[in-house]
Amino acid sequence: MNLKQFYAVLLIVFFIPLLSSCFQVIEEITMKNDGTGDVVLTINLSQSRTKVASVMLLDSIQGYKVPSKTKIQQELNEAVTYLKKSEGISNVKSTSDFTNYIATISFSFKDVSNINNITKNILAQQKIKATNTSSYSYNKLTKTFSRKYQAVGTAKTEFNKLKNQDKAVFNTATYTSIYRFESPVTNTSNPASNVSKSKKAVMLKSSIMDLINGKINVSNQIQLSK
Questions:
Q1: Phi-psi domain of 143 (left: phi exceeds 0; alpha: psi -120 through 50; beta: other)
Q2: Judging by beta carbons within 10 Å of its beta carbon (0-12, 13-18, 19+), is residue 182 exposed, middle or buried?
Q3: C-beta neighbour count of 210 within 10 angstroms
Q4: Cα(119)–Cα(219) distance, rounded to whole angstroms?
Q5: How does 51-61 read in b/e, with b if 16+ C-beta sit within 10 Å?
Q6: What is the pLDDT of residues 4-23, one digit of tens each?
Q7: CB count, 10 Å around CB of 46?
Q8: Is the CB of residue 202 less than 8 Å from the CB of residue 185?
Q9: Backbone dihedral region of 126: left (phi > 0), alpha (psi from -120 to 50 degrees) or beta?
Q10: Domain boundaries, given as residue ranges, for the chain
Q11: For 43-66, what is each residue's pLDDT tens digit?
Q12: To 10 degrees, what angle do helices 69-84 and 118-126 make?
């Protein structure tokens, strides 16, 4: 599963009309030594909640139809239904906070590779082009977690087709990945990543504009203590 692509579905289809220039997308993966784990995906618009609340009262803005709370909830429910039917995925839940405008989807997996194709299929249903390819793997013998990321060359071209006011939405937007483990981390391959004091979590934070422009690569190979 390309987890950022999941955010793209929600942002492009439902939230872009509502945003100011400040929002966060957060991907959290908790890995157990046996290869099972959990995922939490979050879109946090709380810093823009006053404007979002005002926009939600309108029918349309900047040429976009403003979705109702019911419509947003319906689409989240459909994503949950799809995930529940996916191989190796269980314990699927979603939350939607329409006071602070924070949406989450969480689920468990038998193997981290189970999540690799999910969002690709969700995007195909929404007729949205992929902006990158991303895959996850975990070797239980060597205790190595890998995330491979490759931007699609057309991503920047597609972004440049947006109206200037729509591009501005992404100026201060951020993407954060957080990976947690049972064993201590001994090494990470991505120099932009930060290891926690406990040595059991790795965080990588970047601006979404840097991702769009290909200025940062979020691939990472994380070696755990054997």
A1: left
A2: middle
A3: 15
A4: 18
A5: bbeebbeeeee
A6: 444 444 444 445 555 554 77
A7: 15
A8: yes
A9: alpha
A10: 3-224
A11: 888 877 777 777 777 777 666 677
A12: 140
Whether 18 contacts 26, CB under 8 Å: no
CA distance readout (Å), 29 to 32, 61, 65, 222: 10, 35, 33, 13
Helix/strand/coil for 179: strand
Looking up tokens 């483990």 gives 181
Q: Categorise residue 214: left if φ over 0, alpha if ψ from -120 to 50, beta otherwise.
A: left
Structure tokens at 141: 């013998």
The one-letter amino acid at 212: I
Tokens of 219: 């691939």
Within a 13 Å sphere around the CA of 129, how many CA atoms are in the beta-carbon half? Answer: 10
